[in-house]
């Protein structure tokens, strides 16, 4: 199996494919010209193009399914070379705006939610990705490839930057080396040029790895999937909380280097009658005291087979209003693409079920 050329940083390609300036040219063709084939890299000698095609594959994944939501987000299912599948979602954060003459005022704003693993080891009680267990880590190229394929598929001009959130399938900090490499490949200015400031790594709270990520000084944004304010409940929702409790996470966040203008995002998945009470909101305010934070309340997105339920909007608003009244920044995330089950893991699960069903028919 040939490695994908998307797995490598420019520096690595410089030593692998001398002379040095070739790597920059290759980055340009891959990430700015969106070529589909090495033969299209016109300013490279023909022999080199052939050699590259012999040594590397171009894309490590292919789109196998796509679902468009009424709100404009598009969910993708990708197949990897070994047959495993992962999801990514293109979220349209803002529409393009035109003036009365039809001239563009500003471009649409996009965020891509990428997966970092096939499955996940963390095993959160509310998460569909957890149900399938863990298969393997994604390579850097498999992470980068999700964004590249989505930009190509939507004709998003190469110079239009998208934001990246590592909030798809998997726990990014459990695959830290490959995720860190993907961050650098995304950031390369000869390539996709997505500054680390525009990349947000979301973690279920592996405190030791948050510290490690901080020491790497990548300049990425941090999001913590908190979801509960006391350890007993958090352990039920996220079993790993036994090893890394809330206090250890808060400590790691306090030590994390944050760009002075940015805040650490705390995600709080709101589940009906589980964590949607005002006593929890009160504790949350205490917990975040002194941290430059922003809270994102997320509606639990139900799926067949779960006992958890979506909270009432009034409870959600009351929770938010309490936090706002105490001076915390707090937004409610209307699950984008709710009609296409945009909480990650859900499209893949659907597709696996369909495969199983068709296998049953055949058997
Ligand atoms: N493993 C990392 C990143 C991927 S999960 C983490 O847990 O942070 C990304 C987000 O999806 C998490 O905040 C998680 O709480 C949320 N999520 C998982 N299942 C969900 C569901 N059924 N409805 C809504 N959000 C969900
Ligand atoms: Fe893994 Fe995140 Fe799902 Fe928990 S919520 S099982 S950490 S992907």
Description of the molecule:
It is a single chain. By secondary structure, the protein is α/β, with parallel strands linked by helices. The protein has 2 domains: 1-58, DNA polymerase, domain 1, CATH 1.10.150.530; 59-362, TIM Barrel. It is built from 12 helices and 14 strands. The chain has helices at 10-16, 21-32, 46-55, 128-131, 140-153, 176-187, 207-216, 231-237, 246-254, 278-287, 313-325, 346-362; strands spanning 61-68, 74-80, 85-94, 97-98, 104-106, 109-113, 117-119, 134-137, 163-166, 199-203, 221-225, 264-270, 293-299, 329-333. Helix 5 (140-153) packs across helix 6 (176-187) and helix 10 (278-287) packs parallel to helix 11 (313-325). The chain is globular and about 70 Å long. The chain starts with 9 loop residues before the first helix and ends with a helix. The structure holds S-adenosyl-L-homocysteine (SAH) and iron/sulfur cluster. Iron/sulfur cluster (SF4) binds next to helix 4.
Quick recap:
By secondary structure, the chain is α/β, with parallel strands linked by helices. The protein contains 12 helices and 14 strands. The longest helix is centred in the C-terminal third of the chain and has 17 residues, at 346-362.
